[in-house]
């Protein structure tokens, strides 16, 4: 009952306050947890998770201009990484549409859908898979709500295989929502069961060595993609 009351209070509050962008940062073990699925389950919110400098610039501008409340999830581990930036991105008018994913790498054998830091891991996994003759397509989701179901389904209908990757907990995650969408709209196109890679179902540890055990790694993505392609996994 308390949860229902709090949700109704949120709904009423959203009608009375001006649109806002929430940028979430933290510098404790809580910062390492992924809350995308939590926020994406709330009607009325838009939830974004940038991966590159292009994403950060274009999506933040879109969030500021959007009339609805937007949650902008930054991964602090991406702050120290460098990304190529085109002249188009540097243009003052550059802005990205909310709810539109991006194909970071085209492929024909398996679709890997990820967001935030996991996009980089997916791209590294695709490079490894290429050495084994597997051509992976990598989708940068960018937006958790709304979710670009159209692009994801189109990719899976081409590759006939899917691996979802996220740092969040495995239950009720973004990957689960994507898998449900594929089953509902593209099940007949699948040549293998979908693979879902997520964080361990445990509270996020603070120690770096334990954190590595709790979040997906590149090798996890590689093994999952190979399983969908019926390749031997070491």
TrEMBL record:
<keyword id="KW-0560">Oxidoreductase</keyword>
<dbReference type="GO" id="GO:0006086">
    <property type="term" value="P:pyruvate decarboxylation to acetyl-CoA"/>
</dbReference>
<dbReference type="InterPro" id="IPR027110">
    <property type="entry name" value="PDHB_mito-type"/>
</dbReference>
<dbReference type="GO" id="GO:0004739">
    <property type="term" value="F:pyruvate dehydrogenase (acetyl-transferring) activity"/>
</dbReference>
<feature type="domain" description="Transketolase C-terminal">
    <location>
        <begin position="99"/>
        <end position="221"/>
    </location>
</feature>
<keyword id="KW-0786">Thiamine pyrophosphate</keyword>
<protein>
    <recommendedName>
        <fullName>Pyruvate dehydrogenase E1 component subunit beta</fullName>
        <ecNumber>1.2.4.1</ecNumber>
    </recommendedName>
</protein>
<dbReference type="InterPro" id="IPR033248">
    <property type="entry name" value="Transketolase_C"/>
</dbReference>
<dbReference type="InterPro" id="IPR009014">
    <property type="entry name" value="Transketo_C/PFOR_II"/>
</dbReference>
<keyword id="KW-0670">Pyruvate</keyword>
<dbReference type="Pfam" id="PF02779">
    <property type="entry name" value="Transket_pyr"/>
</dbReference>
<dbReference type="InterPro" id="IPR029061">
    <property type="entry name" value="THDP-binding"/>
</dbReference>
<dbReference type="Pfam" id="PF02780">
    <property type="entry name" value="Transketolase_C"/>
</dbReference>
<comment type="function">
    <text>The pyruvate dehydrogenase complex catalyzes the overall conversion of pyruvate to acetyl-CoA and CO2.</text>
</comment>
<feature type="domain" description="Transketolase-like pyrimidine-binding">
    <location>
        <begin position="35"/>
        <end position="79"/>
    </location>
</feature>
<dbReference type="InterPro" id="IPR005475">
    <property type="entry name" value="Transketolase-like_Pyr-bd"/>
</dbReference>
